[in-house]
TrEMBL record:
Belongs to the serine/threonine dehydratase family. GO terms for biological process: D-serine biosynthetic process. One of its GO terms (molecular function) is threonine deaminase activity. This is threonine ammonia-lyase. Catalyzes the anaerobic formation of alpha-ketobutyrate and ammonia from threonine in a two-step reaction. The first step involved a dehydration of threonine and a production of enamine intermediates (aminocrotonate), which tautomerizes to its imine form (iminobutyrate). Both intermediates are unstable and short-lived. The second step is the nonenzymatic hydrolysis of the enamine/imine intermediates to form 2-ketobutyrate and free ammonia. In the low water environment of the cell, the second step is accelerated by RidA. Keywords: Lyase, Pyridoxal phosphate. Its EC number is 4.3.1.19. InterPro entries: TrpB-like_PALP, TrpB-like_PALP_sf. It is an enzyme of class 4 (lyase).
Length: 319
């Protein structure tokens, strides 16, 4: 299996540069003294999450490779929310039609945002989004832009790691939320190549810790959808593909799992101490940092997204 390289990530950075925010590293001076804390706030992207990086790289690559009678007019994606918005946003920027398949339990704020970007939303039952998306692609002739299982998507997400390496060469720990594994695969590839002394940790909710179990056993494991859907971190309910799992085996130094209470506490801490809004999925890296299990040294956490329903945010802040 061919894995994404640092050259792929660098090419992606050039491709997406006009459309994606180069997010800063924010010094969190309230972090632990022995583990200086830095936040990579991907909630500041145009659609509120890191997914825009992979979407622009994948769609941009498709556009570069098609022309004339074969020119792409439609794209299809399946997502619980942030990838949906990213593909809708990127498709609109390129003048393409987007058809987005979303599970019925997706937070309404993400469904509305996707429609607001001009996409056609197709709702489906839990566990059916891949099959419904394949049928939608067949019906529309659209090109599939998967949320993580594609080299161009992984390379696009990896551009965040390229920025970390450029801004903080001394980084010793990087904490990355893991769901389908595209973000950790891409960032891990960049950090492993450019900052070889750094330790790279994936973070999962305890209630959706299939990647942690799979890496411990040496092969992918399948957790029932109903089990994974228990976590408040709705963006972390997917499972790695063969492609992303192979990357994770190569780039991660370990996995850290966090409880629902720790996730909620991290959301509150980011609001009150960093003045940043994070969805539960985006806050898990801070929850892992607070466990104190990573080595000393400069530590970067990826705040992967901030698309949280207002009612949920109010509830968490009131806890």
């Amino acid at each position: 299996m061919k894995l994404v390289t640092i050259d792929d990530v660098r090419a992606a950075a050039e491709r997406i540069r006009p459309n994606v925010v180069r997010t800063p590293l924010l010094a969190a001076r309230w972090g632990d003294r022995e583990r200086p804390l830095w936040i990579k706030p991907e909630n500041l992207q145009p659609i509120g999450a890191f997914k825009v990086r992979g979407a622009f790289n994948a769609i941009g690559a498709v556009r570069e490779n098609s022309d004339g009678r074969d020119a792409v007019t439609d794209v299809v994606a399946y997502s619980s929310g942030n990838h949906a918005q990213a593909v809708a946003y990127a498709a609109a920027a390129f003048g393409l039609r987007a058809h987005i398949v979303m599970p019925e339990e997706t937070p309404e704020v993400k469904v509305a945002a996707t429609r607001g970007l001009g996409a056609r939303v197709v709702l489906c039952a839990a566990g059916q989004r891949e099959a419904v998306a394949e049928q939608t692609a067949h019906d529309t002739g659209g090109v599939m832009i998967p949320p993580f299982d594609h080299p161009d998507v992984i390379a696009g997400q990896g551009t965040a790691g390229l920025e970390i390496a450029e801004d903080l060469p001394s980084v010793r720990n990087v904490l990355i939320p893991v769901s389908g594994g595209g973000l950790a695969s891409g960032i891990g590839t960049a950090i492993r190549a450019l900052c070889p002394a750094a330790k790279i940790f994936g973070v999962e909710p305890e209630l959706a810790a299939d990647t942690a179990e799979g890496l411990r056993l040496g092969h992918r494991v399948d957790w029932p959808v109903g089990d994974r859907n228990r976590t408040i971190a709705d963006g972390l309910r997917s499972q790695p593909s063969e492609l992303t799992f192979a990357h994770l085996q190569q780039v991660l130094d370990g996995m850290i799992t966090v409880s629902e209470a720790e996730i909620r506490s991290a959301v509150r801490e980011l609001v009150h101490r960093a003045h940043l809004v994070a969805e539960p999925s985006g806050a898990v890296a801070l929850a892992a940092y607070r466990q104190g299990v990573t080595p000393p040294g400069d530590t970067v956490l990826i705040l992967s997204g901030g698309n949280v329903e207002p009612q949920m945010l109010r509830q968490i802040l009131a806890d």
